[in-house]
Amino acid sequence: xxxxxxxxxxxxxxxxxxxxxxxxxxxxxxxxxxxxxxxxxxxxxxxxxxxxxxxxxxxxxxxxxxxxxxxxxxxxxxxxxxxxxxxxxxxxxxxxxxxxxxxxxxxxxxxxxxxxxxxxxxxxxxxxxxxxxxxxxxxxxxxxxxxxxxxxxxxxxxxxxxxxxxxxxxxxxxxxxxxx
Length: 180
Description:
Helix 2 crosses helix 4. By secondary structure, the protein is of the alpha+beta class. It starts with a helix and ends in a 17-residue tail after the last helix. It has helices at about 5-25, 70-95, 110-115, 120-145, 160-165, and strands at about 30-40, 45-55, 55-65, 100-105, 115. Strands 1-2-3-4-5 form a 5-stranded mixed beta sheet. It contains 5 helices and 5 strands, in the order H-E-E-E-H-E-H-E-H-H.
């Protein structure tokens, strides 16, 4: 990490602690909280950045290092991520958490930093069904040998690729592939 990136990260953390720390930290139940659900054909896993709870209910929080996107597909993807966490939470605890929050650490304004997600059953269930369809599509592509035939139109964002666990063996963005 560059010195500039370290300074930026430190400023984000300092601002977060000043803004949220006093009321948030006493409510923290766990951090890097692992969730898992056995599905029919696969295991669904997730790691919630912060699990909180008190008399007001349970919450799951996910931190994003950058600024809040201007709506669109990226924000929808983040929302789907929290829906997945909510389903995993329900699988382990019998009910959905009361709310979810995606917190964009790169935002200076608290209202812009916090993106709240409601977990009504239909939204979560629809998102999980879409996730399962994607798993089926991936399995089919792998069976047909088309797994790495990604067109320019289908290419994920650079940010998505930079965070992906398989980026060093994926041919979609050669700039991330490790040289042998």
